[in-house]
Structure formats: C-alpha cells, structure tokens
Amino acid sequence: MLTYLEARDKIRSVAKQLPTEHVPLAQSLNRILAHPIFADRDYPPFNRAAMDGIAIRIDDWNNGIREFRIRNTIFAGMETSTVLANGECYKIMTGAACPREADTIIRKEDLIYTPNETALILGKSISHGHHLAQRGEDLKQNELAVTAPRVCDISVIGTLAALGIHQVPVYKMPRVGIVTTGNEVVDIDQQPEHFQIRNSNQYLLCALCEQWQLPVQFCQHVSDEPLALSAVLRQAMEQQLILINGGVSAGDADYVPRILQELGVEILFHKVSIKPGKPLLMGLLPQGRILFALPGNPLSCFMTFKLFVEEYLHKCLGFTNERFQQVKLQTPRSKKSSLDEFFPVFRQAEAHRYTWKPHHGSGDITATVGCEGIGWHIHNKQVITENDTIPVLSLHPFFNLI
Q1: Domains in the chain: how many in total?
Q2: Fewest Cβ atoms nearer than 10 Å: which of 120, 325, 333, 336?
Q3: Going by C-beta distance under 8 Å and a sequence separation of 6 or more, which residues neighbour residue 266?
Q4: What is the H or E stretch that residue 302 is in?
Q5: What is the pTM of this model?
C-alpha cells in the first residue's frame, strides 16, 4: 500500500502533457492557456490623454504662456495632422491620441474656456507629461503579456481581447467517462426505499469535471452484477479519462479491481494509506488513457478526486506550483491512526485562518457543505494544536495557479 506522497509521485510520473487546440475567445473562460501571449504592438499604441482638457507643449508653459488658443478638438478615435503654433493647444478628450508635438495634458477642472476659443490655465504646478499615458508604457511590442500555463479567468479575457487574440491557444481537455456502481443506488429523481441511497456521486463527479472544463462523454450507473459491470466499463474505456465510483474496496460485491484486470487495465496502485479514500485505484490503458476508481462514500469520492484526479490534471497542464498552501488551524485536532488524514476546513473571518468540525465518517453527505478547503493531518503528527500551521488544499481548482 502506497503512502499519499508515493501515490502522488506515481501520478506525476505517468501524467503526460495534453495536446493543444484553439478556441474562440468567447469560449475560453476557465480554459487553460497553453502558450504565452506577446504584445502585437505597443500598448498604449499612442500617447493617450488620461483626462478631458487641453494638450499643450510644456515649453510654452515654461515660457510663461497661460492662455492658449484652441487649434482643434480631438476626440477618441480621431487622428489629427494640425500643427501647433506658439501659444496654441488642442482641446482633447479622455482616450484620444495626443499628437506628438503636444506633450502635456491640462485637465478640464484646471481651465477656464473663454468665448474667444481660448483656454486659460488656473493651475500653478504643471509638469512635463502630466495626465498623458506614454506610448508603450504598459507593454512594448513583442513583450510578454500573459504567461502560460494560466487559467483564462476574467482577469485574462479582457487582456487577450485587447491584444487581438480572437482564437485562444488552450490545452485540449481529455474526454471523460463516468461510471457509478452499486445495487443500493437509485437516481435522484426516484424515491429510494429505506435500504437505498440516491446517486449523489454521479452529480458530484459531473460538477467537478465541469469545473475543470472536462467534457463528460459517457456517464452511466450500473449494478454490482459482474457481467453488466464489465460491459459498462468497456464502454467507458473508450474515453480518455475514466472515473469509476464504488465497487473498489474489499467487500464481497466489490468486483471492480478484478474486472479491470480482465479488461486489460494495468493497475498502477490499489489502496493508499489515507483516510478517507483508502481503497483508491489508479490504472493505465492503451493510448495513454488513465483510469481512477474512487471509493463510493460521498466524502471519500470528493476527497480522492480533489487529491488525486486534480493532481493528474495539474501535472498534465504543465503547472509546477505547490497546490497546498500553509494556513493556521484555529481548532485543535487529534488522530489515532498512522495514516495521512484529510478533512474539510472552514475559513474564518481572518484570512489564512481556518477551523474544522467533526463529521460522521466518509458517508456524511453534509461534511463538505460550506467548506473552503481540505486540511492535511500528516501521518506522523498525532495532534494538531491550536493555531498550528497545516497544509490546506483550496476547493477552487484554479486557486494559486500561476
């Protein structure tokens, strides 16, 4: 049985970089940028007025001129070739391109416009380049604008649009097949008998996949009958990433490990010394397809996806940052096992301070409600004392991905 770190290293060792594709910018939200983006020109591409007002030559001001004749009015999106004479200015609007011979903007609030088409400057302190964004001060042509890999979140989309990236190079996410198992499981729109449960894990796994923009191409529930299980698993294995839920432990009806071997799956590991989630299995199929068999209890299913499936995706997408952050746990916690234990944590009002609360085991369907992350109680530490620093994995899959 592997330790958590051994299993994590095994996953990293088999993860291969995903292929890339181009998608329209409007469809790129939360996709992973595959290539760095460079500026196609200077930004701003011209000296840009940052205020409504007038554009003057600072030399005129330094020579004592305080009232300027308005030579022309420049709006955003206009270009002018009008040349300024001594004591002349342009009336200019925010965002407009300022001609090269004008080098300073005087804002409207510091002016008096006269009926004689002049502007009188009221301010006494004016410096060269005032209220003028210089060409290229944000980005120079060919300068790195957006690094990769990076999540195309809302902070990136606008920048890509400004750079003219209408087709975005992103990683092509693997097609997913999901199989949930169990004779006791019914769909959520059915009224279960007292000995049955609803298929919450199917919807949980689909939601987790959607968070990662993973296309679920196959999703089916199957009973614990071996022939039916084998037939459904064979169909699911046509996808590139296969997620099986349940039937992976050591019970009399846990047929998944045996059937996977019969179907030619190379088992990389089965069982990890963690709690919850110990029965986890990972396997390889031809053409680089990957299979994870997750335990059936809801908390175990959730934890093992976050800890292991996301670790695989993280590596395939080229991210190298540490997924866990170090935070303070305000409430003490003890354990009796020698396993690495993982548990839901809840953010307090203060940033980077968390607490936890007991739950009723890996079958507790409410254990994660409202939680912000997964705390890691390391195997060789029996007690976490108040305000100890522990590793915490954010529930947001893209937290701290740079």
Answers
A1: 4
A2: 336
A3: 283, 284, 285
A4: helix 298-304
A5: 0.88
